[in-house]
Amino acid sequence: MMHVAIIGAGQAGAALAARLRSAGHIGAITLIGDEPVAPYQRPPLSKAYLLGEMPLDRLLLRAPDFWAAQDIWLVTGTPVTAVDAAARTLRMGDETLAWDHLAFTTGAVVRRLPAAIGGDLPGVHYVRTLADVDGMAPEFVAGRRVLIVGGGYIGLEAAAVAAKKGLRVTVVEAAPRILQRVAAPETSDYFRALHTAHGVAVLEGTGLARLTGAGRVTGAELADGRQLACDFAIVGVGILPATALAEAAGLVLDNGIATDDQGRTSAPQVWAAGDCASFPHAGGRLRLESVPGAIDMAECVAENILGAGKTYVPKPWFWSDQYDVKLQIAGLNTGYDRVIVRDGGAVRSHWYYRGDRLLAVDAMNDPRGFMIARRLIDAGRSADPVRVADPATDLKALLA
Q1: Any bridge partners for residue 98, and if so which?
Q2: Which residues pair with 84 in a beta bridge?
């Protein structure tokens, strides 16, 4: 019977293994993770888990007995060190494992600051794994000073947690504005005002020269010469696809592990899904850093391993929680030329257009606006910008 091995026991790997079984695969399934815990959710790490509002058992993607009940061999705390695509084997620990199909769901790794500018100093933390967050949690003591390097969503979520816990928070962003890479100025303005209202100092257009300290981080020198003192630092400057193992195995890379529109890599019987994988999209290639995207692509790959021949069609959506604001994002805003602001007071949404075509929406505490925009975008439809901008417009009517 066919043995499917999956490297990477995160959201995509767990979804792929579960879908293989539910789709009728009766052969062996091996799910291999390098962390010493069962598959868990990452998004709550920098939000509810760090706040102490979500215990570890609720982080887990499945009940502890799920994997054995589904006859899925879950291997934890064991990195795969080599893959031989021609021989169809992999090496984990002291064991060589043969497979018939292999899936890379290795996810991503954090961008780290160079050691030469203090990136490895004790007291400098990164947000990616459970161990990362467990390691920084004791630092969150009211009154302490935390420096957040990077004004993307991870950095801002960490800033919100720190501010809620009574810390003195400074966010340093090298770009002219926070969220510049992922959002319009209107969304940047909204979140800057939100953080400022909670006492966070937001320094934009301000590069980091180095983190300073003897034996432990105690401050930072900025590119303009200013000196900041801190008790610890959190670095959130993005992630990179985890492709080292795939590259060593000879797979083609292109902003991640390159796949076709069904999730196949350049090697026969080898697949990829999730944050580590890029796929054809709109005449180019796309890699989504998204939990829903990881799940959808992994489930599509699972079905294709079993012969379904399905094209993966991404339907991107994302979210972020900061203070009492839930941001929900639908679509991809790449190439927008205008933003329509729908201001409903307590709820607000920013609609991205290229010409008259709706591309994406940022919805702040506006689940209705998010769901309607998402339905329109997924269906390839648009909405009259004038009607969208009018708070009196019943958004549901846009679906008619």
Answers
A1: 89
A2: 89
Report the predicted TM-score, pTM, of the whole model to 2 decimal places.
Answer: 0.96
- Distance from first CA to last CA of the chain, Å, rounded? 50
- Rounded alpha-carbon distances, angstroms, from residue 192 to 121, 195, 262, 360, 379: 29, 5, 40, 21, 33
Q: What are the CA-CA distances from residue 48 to residues 55, 70, 161, 321 (Å)?
A: 9, 29, 9, 9
**Residue 360 and residue 337: Cα distance in Å, rounded?**
12
Structure tokens at 162: 């720190």
What does the alpha-carbon distance between residue 236 and residue 148 come to, in Å, rounded to a whole number? Answer: 7
Fold of 4-109+240-305: FAD/NAD(P)-binding domain (3.50.50)
Pick the CATH number of 324-399 from 3.30.565.10, 3.30.700.10, 2.60.34.30, 3.30.390.30: 3.30.390.30
Dig out the tokens for 46 from the structure.
């920098």
- Tell me the pLDDT of the chain (400 aa) as tens digits: 899 999 999 999 999 999 999 999 999 999 999 999 999 999 999 889 998 899 999 999 999 999 999 999 999 999 999 999 999 999 998 999 999 999 999 999 999 999 999 999 999 999 999 999 999 999 999 999 999 999 999 999 999 999 999 999 999 999 999 999 999 999 999 999 999 999 999 999 999 999 999 999 999 999 999 999 999 999 999 999 999 999 999 999 999 999 999 999 999 999 999 999 999 998 999 999 999 999 999 999 999 999 999 999 999 999 999 999 999 999 999 999 999 999 988 899 999 999 999 999 999 999 999 999 999 999 999 999 999 999 899 989 888 8
